[in-house]
Design a protein that fits this description.
The complex is a heterodimer of chains A (about 110) and B (about 110). Chain A has about 110 residues and is mostly beta strands. Chain A is built from no helices and 11 strands. In chain A, strand 4 and strand 5 form a beta hairpin. With about 110 residues, chain B is mainly beta. Classes of the chains: A mainly beta (about 110), B mainly beta (about 110).
Chain lengths: ~110, ~110
């Protein structure tokens, strides 16, 4: 059982480049989300999805795009990378209900130069 | 909107001692859940413990317990008998009725000394 799989683990981009961070889960979870982690700021929600075809913005959505065509996959697209997007990115999934924990991927360390 | 505040950027504890990590929250939801996660230096997020807003008992999971004071809007994590492997970043988080939106605090770095 793989859980939540994120790829790549590390990435270096040049300013202005675009890329997609991949996230897949095999637990049939309805909810999926993307966070970025910056020093001293905890994890901040970028975008989230409550099911296939349904996405919504989180706290820091600017510069990022998402789509959810299947239950399993929730890719995060950086449209035109900026140095301010240098961060560690986590994908998470959870089941419905208040008392179910979120499962996290291993994270992607992204550096924009 | 929901908010989590962790006021201790860093904490130190002696091995085998107990330590309390503070967490206060703010929410307008009547039903909500509080979570604690551990992030070791390797970077993964590990779920530790959950407390529901209507749970009458404080949650416990092995050496972890949650000191939940609803009126004070606090959900402090207590780690008993600290071990060297407990050295990590600890995050408190809240989930309200918008089930997809988990809100995290800034985290507390715990260092366990031998």
């Amino acid at each position: 059982n793989a859980g939540v799989t994120q790829t790549p683990k590390f990435q270096v981009l040049k300013t202005g480049q675009s890329m997609t961070l991949q996230c897949a889960q095999d637990m049939n979870h309805e909810y999926m989300s993307w966070y970025r982690q910056d020093p001293g700021m905890g994890l901040r929600l970028i975008h989230y999805s409550v099911g296939a075809g349904i996405t919504d913005q989180g706290e820091v959505p600017n510069g990022y795009n998402v789509s959810r065509s299947t239950t399993e996959d929730f890719p995060l697209r950086l449209l035109s990378a900026a140095p301010s997007q240098t961060s560690v990115y986590f994908c998470a999934s959870k089941n419905q209900g208040l008392n179910t924990e979120a499962f996290f991927g291993q994270g992607t360390r992204l550096t924009v130069v | 909107a929901q908010k989590i505040t962790q006021t201790q950027p860093g904490m130190f504890v002696q091995e085998k001692e107990a330590v309390t990590l503070d967490c206060t929250y703010d929410t307008s939801d009547q039903s909500y859940g509080l979570f604690w996660y551990k992030q070791p230096s390797s970077g993964e997020m590990i779920f530790l413990i959950y407390q529901g807003s209507y749970d009458e008992q404080n949650a416990t999971e092995g050496r972890y317990s949650l000191n939940f004071q609803k009126a004070r809007k606090s959900a402090n994590l207590v780690i008993s008998a600290s071990q060297l492997g407990d050295s990590a970043m600890y995050f408190c988080a809240i989930l309200g009725t918008s089930y997809g939106k988990l809100t995290f605090g800034q985290g507390t770095i715990l260092t366990v000394h031998p």
